[in-house]
Amino acid sequence: MFLSRLTLRHFRNFDQQTLSPFAGRNLIFGQNAQGKTNLIEAIHLLTYLRSFRTGRERELIMRGREWAMIEAELMSSRRGREHIRLVLRGGQKYLRVNGAPVARQEDYLGLVLAHFFIPSDLRLIAGEPRERRALLDVEVVRALPRSAAHIRAYYELLDQRNALLRELAQQEGPPPESTHRLLRQYGAQLAEEGSRLVEARMRLLAEIIPRTERFYRKMSGGRETLALTYRTYWGEEVAPEQFDPRGYRQRMEQDLSGELFREIEIGHTRAGPHRDDLEFALEGRLVKNFGSQGQMRSAVLAFKLALCEFTADYGEPPILCLDDALSELDDARRLRLVEILGEIRLGQVFITAASRRECAPLEGQMAKLFLVEAGTIRELTEPLGAGGAD
Ligand SMILES: Nc1ncnc2c1ncn2[C@@H]1O[C@H](COP(=O)(O)OP(=O)(O)OP(=O)(O)O)[C@@H](O)[C@H]1O
Ligand SMILES: [Mg+2]
Hints:
The chain has helices at 36-48, 105-108, 123-126, 129-143, 147-170, 177-219, 245-257, 260-266, 287-290, 293-314, 331-343, and strands at 2-11, 14-19, 25-29, 67-76, 80-89, 92-97, 100-101, 114-117, 226-231, 237-238, 277-282, 285-286, 319-323, 348-353, 367-373, 376-380. By secondary structure, the protein is of the alpha+beta class. It has a domain at 1-113 and 315-390: Rossmann fold (3-Layer(aba) Sandwich), CATH 3.40.50. The protein has a six-stranded antiparallel beta sheet, with helices on one face. The chain has a six-stranded mixed beta sheet with strand order 8-13-14-3-15-16, with helices on both faces. A four-stranded antiparallel beta sheet has the order 10-9-11-12. The longest helix has 43 residues, at 177-219. The chain is globular and about 75 Å long. It starts with a strand and ends in a 10-residue tail after the last strand. Bound molecules: adenosine-5'-triphosphate and magnesium ion (MG). Residues 12-13, 30, 32-38, 59, 61-63, 324, 354, 372 line the site of adenosine-5'-triphosphate (ATP). The site of magnesium ion has 4 residues, from helix 1.
């Protein structure tokens, strides 16, 4: 899959810009604050219908303008050419595919097969478990769209049960038996949906964990072994192939029916997949606590590359966007990353960097170069060293 055309109107610092990206590597460079990340953000919006930087749509619209538009022509090997138009106006999104309005966002998500590395993705490792689970579940929904209903049901039930717990915390004296029964009922439903949610996570992780570990090993020149582990809220490690949904459900239901008084005291549900975690470790030590910047970056990149390979195997070769991914990698890791990019079947790659030297190993016949300057993008044709941008 690839974008053959991309038009931005009043989007961030792009007043009006049309780009014909190459169905290969697009190397985008420019000094700080020129619009490189804004461009990647536009592709991210087309993919997920949300920004990775802001929840406030107003910020996406160019200062002094009332609306913004992102328009793209998408070439897919399965569906041919598609025209997507996303307009942001008055806090609303208006989305059309091939001229027809899209009624439900859920029907659209999954159309653009793109994966991203953005510096804030380092949260996948360095962030709170909550952030890690959110990043994981987004991918679960994309890979297994039918899991979306279970994930939604789970979090709705969780909210309801937590609201009830908080309400009880305000009340004097022990809650009546009928309330206990209600909490247990919620618990049973939560355990049912929760075990399905973990099952979906496991189905994705069974594909992603071995690939991530393989790519990491390769990026480290075979010197380091990364291990990803899914850990349940009760502290047990679970290998995706050995996951037992019934066992998980029973354990969770049991945990949610005991010690209700403690849950009422703390005001939230103590057990369930909203407390599970995914750990990244190098030689038995958590990357989060012991990893270097380069190791963290390599681990997140390996995870994203794994998603790309998985998408290529089960869907079609995806688009990969790497925003400022090469900085903080040493020359050897950078070269190995380039090698891996050559091995995975990718429909198209966008790579941004502050200097052209950073992505020099990626230049060649399969690459187009673009220079971003103050909200304008210009294709470069002169070879490296012939003047122009650094
Ligand atoms: N709504 C907006 N209207 C106008 N300009 C905006 C808007 N939102 C952001 N900008 C401008 O976009 C620029 C930032 O662009 P971007 O984040 O893409 O930079 P970058 O090229 O990725 O830089 P870096 O190399 O530092 O990451 C800033 O100058 C900012 O003021
Ligand atoms: Mg940037």
